[in-house]
Amino acid sequence: MPMDALTRTITPPAVPGSSTPGGVMRAGAMAARAVAPQPSAAELAAASTAAATARAPRRSAAHGPDLQTGVAQAQQALDYLARIAAQLEALKADLSTRLAGRGAASRQLEARARQLGDTLDTRRSEGGAGLDAELGFDGDRVAQQRFRIEGLDIASLQAAGRQTLGFSVGSIGGPQLAATFEPGMTEEEIARRLDRTLAPVGIRAGLDTERTLVFTTPEATFDGVKDAIAVTGRGRVDTTALPASLAPREWQLGNPDALRQGLREVVQALARVRRSQDAAALALSQATARTAQPELPQAELALLAADFSDTATSHDYQSLLAITSALVGVSRERVQALLGLR
Fold first, then answer.
1. Of 41, 58, 78, 163, which is the most buried if we count CB atoms within 10 A?
2. What domain count does the chain have?
3. What is the gyration radius of the CA atoms in the chain, in angstroms?
């Protein structure tokens, strides 16, 4: 609707004896009170409830449980990662000074390592569901447990001739979860074939940095998966959960080589923590932005404008009273300035 038409639409009819905007408002209000009965308190309450109910679905969509979980998960990960980063920085400084031949007694280093180990033990309870054992954060999925399946490796699959393996996890699987391996398949092709086959039961396959097969599944479901995997011709197969690469309690810090190895692991862990902090901060920012009230679609805006126009041009004094009361002190320039913000 053009601006001129909108401002003309909301101008109430002139009332004799009143030439100023304030007089128009007062005259309109007096006419409305004289002609139409005032709504009762019960009617006002019912109208308020109806308006709140009408707004509820859009608000629920913007602030649903999934979005709230995402915000809490990212914030929890950021808080935990900040503690880990501070402890890693302190340990890095102590290891560096010890290697330089000054300060940081062995007992102090061991105490730092124990403190870091204690904090790592609380990851699942304090770091949130999105932070995995490698201190990696992914805002789009929960933390994953890495594991291997005994007897299922790249070398054995490449050495065998053409074969088809069927997989099941508990009561799920059977013939439909079957993967065929051909002679000459590369490591990547084998990993992709297994990944596509096992994805329907929540298990993914890939290659680690040493190009060895590694499987992942959500940490929360690993206990129900680890003893339930079966392969045709082998029956139930054993699985081995891969420990976290950062294990400060296992460090032997009594000689320069061990100190250098510990420092190397600390620096690598710090790099992972920084990447995860960036990822969690981005996830938090995106989730917070989505909690804002969504913009109304153009079709709905047009409908609201049409309803307003119909109401403003009617001869119902109750409607005119509500409109003019709301527009007291609202000038054309203010409306134009507000519309300019869009």
1. 78
2. 3
3. 33
Q: Is 78 helix (H, G, I), strand (E, B) or coil?
A: helix
Range of the domain at 96: 66-138+246-289
Helix (H, G, I), strand (E, B) or coil at 12: coil
At 206, give phi and psi (nearest 5°).
-165, -170
Say whether both 177 and 322 belong to one domain.
Answer: no
Quote the pLDDT of residue 327: 67
Phi-psi region of 128 (alpha: psi -120 to 50; beta: other; left: phi over 0): left
328 by DSSP, 3-state: which? Answer: coil
Q: Where are the alpha helices (DSSP H) in the chain?
A: 3-9, 21-35, 41-62, 65-99, 106-121, 123-126, 154-159, 187-198, 219-225, 256-290, 298-312, 317-326, 332-339
Render pLDDT for 143-176 as a digit per residue (tens, 0 to 9): 999 999 998 999 999 998 899 999 998 877 666 7
pTM confidence score: 0.62
Note whether residue 255 is domain-resident. yes
- Classify residue 322: in a domain, yes or no: yes
Structure tokens at 35: 């002609």
Q: What is the rounded average pLDDT of the residues 308-319? A: 74
